[in-house]
Amino acid sequence: MASSTCNQQTNPYLIEQIHTMLHQEQTTYKCNVDYLNHSSSPVIINVKPSHRVALCQWAYNVINTIKNIDKSIAVIGIQYFDRFMSSKLGSRFLIGSREFQLAFIGCLIVSLKAREGMVVEVDFITNVLCNNLYSQCEILAIEIEVLIALEWRLNGPTPQDFVGYFLDLYSYSSMFADERVVETLKQSSLVLVEQAMTDYALALQTPSSIAYAALLSCMDESFDPLDKFALIRSVTMVSGIEANQSGQRFVRDRLVQVMQMQGVGLARASVVQKSCSTQYTKSYVMSRNKRK
Description:
By secondary structure, the protein is mainly alpha-helical. The chain is built from 14 helices and no strands.
């Protein structure tokens, strides 16, 4: 197995980018306020995690209907939402499901505009997306409130970003990394990330820990132990994240629970894992044969 240290030294941009993202998730874009169970909340909280789950699934459905828009935009909107609800401005939207939903819609719209550059007409939002539940004034107002609460900080790291960069580390450190295998592993991990973000307990964890848990879960039974070790070693050396840390174990265990509760997502990920395992076996055998 090639030395990961040597490979990492030849790619300083990758290391710097990961370090920057790790710093951002712990500072500017940190979201760890348990806003649905906040004892010091200025309002009476009348919404539950189940309301949030329904909104997240709705966001994925909306994105699926928009051509050429990736689901990562929905994840970004969900991240905006959790940060917004953790703020003083956002806390007043905890008083009921109508207000809670309005805040979520505002965050999704902001993600579409800010990260996808999409023109979203307010009448389309009110008439089509919201079935006239909210007025145009309410939609415009919530967008402004979201931007103010987030202080226009809209480019934070996502779990999908970390999946991509951690896989880059894996590609540099593994002797048998194959582009097709890496891409299939990426798609499998993204399925788990999308489902993880619907879970309130997981959404309060760092994007890096969610990404790492998704990758390790997909590699559990599909990959040679040496290649799994290559990923673990590379991520630990660069990020300092230990696979056996209590916090990381919680994320992995919780992710398994979420996937078990959401059988559709688990089945979809399993299909991708099976394909990934087959491709890995072929690549491994071919690499072995070349060395003989």
